[in-house]
Design a protein that fits this description.
This protein is of the alpha/beta class. The protein contains 12 helices and 12 strands. The strands form 2 sheets. The chain has a 7-stranded parallel beta sheet, sandwiched between helices. Strands 2-1-3-4-5 form a 5-stranded parallel beta sheet, sandwiched between helices. The longest helix is centred in the C-terminal third of the chain and has 19 residues. Bound molecules: 1,4-dihydronicotinamide adenine dinucleotide (NAI). The site of 1,4-dihydronicotinamide adenine dinucleotide has 29 residues, from helix 4 and helix 6.
Amino acid sequence: MRVAVFSAKSYDRASLEEVNADARHDLRFFDAPLDASTAGLAEGADAACVFVHDRVDADVLERLAGLGVRLVAIRAAGFNNVDLTAAGTLGLTVARVPAYSPHAVAEHAVALMLALNRKIHRAYNRVREGNFALDGLLGFDFAGKTAGVVGTGKIGAVLVRILAGFGCRILAHDPYPSPELEALGVEYVAPDDLFARADVISLHAPLTPQTRHLIDERALGRMKQGVMLVNTSRGALIDTRAVIDALKSGRIGALALDVYEEEDDLFFRDLSEQIIQDDVFTRLLTFPNVLITGHQAYFTREALRGIAETTLANIDAFEQGQRSGNELTPERAPG
Ligand code: NAI
């Protein structure tokens, strides 16, 4: 099939070309993200392959369908950027990569937690400047602390196991509690209970109307003074302005983000020569107890390979008139 691959970085290209080494599909790579102004690049393609910042709304889907595109292959698990209802109405199939490496994201969340706790980001700079003083670098033992995991699907479940290995007590919230995790000693509680009791809170729920701004002023008000908050799921789970107030008051003692509400205009590109216009984001950068990475939690060799394999398997299945099982139906649309 002819496939227009949008938001294609060098590493996307490399992993997709490796899995498509037999050239069974004609992959055309475009640096540009998909939106109404770039949809025309899909002219002549049967499928559009998209990533998390591509804007796949009703208007864009209509343009794609008008060009003859029949499949939207998402190179990600999250699909909050795709209007599934509009896709259904237009008769477009949408498929995603439901799982690639949950370890990649869970391990990155742990990397952020440990780096923040032991101030590795500050120690790195100090030591390079010949400053070996320890003042300001004091951390805590994870062993014996209470971790709150919001969303215990594939990624949350891996995180739970890692934190259990550290000797943490684990609280979780998920509309669908996992019996396997309960057997490990995880205690499922209501969100407010989790917020009130956890020393470290990590978010692993999808972005839906129910989870948007789950962490708002009210939720923050219930948390322990000095709590560590980690978000590697989707930026809009957090009300960033409320979080900035909580950092200023000391309610949040440490914040790690791999995702940000308004990341579409920032992440996945080099803006080092430009003036960042987002004042909320730049305020976050001023806190010594905030650590931000630019949506790199998924970025491991194993994950890229897994994404490429499933994406191409989804395209294979569609071409052969079969179902891969990774198709998203309009009923999955949040609402
Ligand atoms: P999953 O679908 O396996 O698990 C999500 C879990 O969240 C499910 O168990 C679900 O029941 C639960 N959930 C739904 N609504 C909830 C609510 N209101 N409160 C608490 N839990 C709720 O998804 P997976 O693979 O574990 O991924 C989780 C999220 O991580 C994805 O939705 C995606 O947004 C994000 N992600 C981030 C990446 C990154 O690079 N930073 C990479 C991959 C995923």
